[in-house]
Hints:
The protein is built from eleven helices and nine strands. The protein is of the alpha/beta class. Strands 1, 2, 3, 4, 5, 6, 7, 8 and 9 form a nine-stranded mixed beta sheet that branches. Helix 5 packs antiparallel against helix 7 and helix 9 crosses helix 11. It is globular, with a radius of gyration of 20 Å.
Amino acid sequence: xxxxxxxxxxxxxxxxxxxxxxxxxxxxxxxxxxxxxxxxxxxxxxxxxxxxxxxxxxxxxxxxxxxxxxxxxxxxxxxxxxxxxxxxxxxxxxxxxxxxxxxxxxxxxxxxxxxxxxxxxxxxxxxxxxxxxxxxxxxxxxxxxxxxxxxxxxxxxxxxxxxxxxxxxxxxxxxxxxxxxxxxxxxxxxxxxxxxxxxxxxxxxxxxxxxxxxxxxxxxxxxxxxxxxxxxxxxxxxxxxxxxxxxxxxxxxxxxxxxxxxxxxxxxxxxxxxxxxxxxxxxxxxxxxxxxxxxxxxxxxxxxxxxxxxxxxxxxxxx
Length: 319
């Protein structure tokens, strides 16, 4: 039996062929791909069928759409299609480097007791071109990220990115913990990796690349749909509660870092600064002191101002 299941909860047709091409190009094909079609109105099977015979692929179309209600439950039922020891929850629009699977097996052999691995990442646009991220700190760790490091860097909003598709985890740790469920799965991945990393005493690094697509069509880039915004705001609140009730004590949840994280998350959903300020003070007064919110807002506005200055400088020097 193969050791690696690549799980793709599928719905959109836009990039899935490119995703499957990147999987088909793997130098090591010791894996099975599972496509969990979330009752998509699009004809995905004819795209998947192009790869029959070239990669070991299992296609299953669910009768009901679950992702619209709970993305994490859709992820879980897709995982349940498989039986391999290691699970790689991928997506229907991202791509992987040709040596990614080979690299996983290499580093899994070096760390046979590990249950959680993380690839390096690059961000790409809708055309597959790399989006250059200045002062990016995502791929700095070469060996392992400790749980406290991961939490602090994600809350610190300090150019440390993390996506669901760059992680491979052991089935046993999944069965024991599942996925943390928030609306739209917003912050569910961070919460899940925190839980898994606590069990694994860290996240082991695979220095090979997954390319995450910022297409303008995914949830991450949708800050205009009212229903999406409301669900994101609900998820943010649930994540705060989860951190302060389930994680505080196991790790140090820095309140000022958490307040800054909230401001950065919420700010993208408000175009007016006054409305943003009023919302933060009214909604989060039970979680944070006035001073903590003020300090977080000041840091956010200073950062925005600095980014505008840097943008102008880059335009002037032609970079």
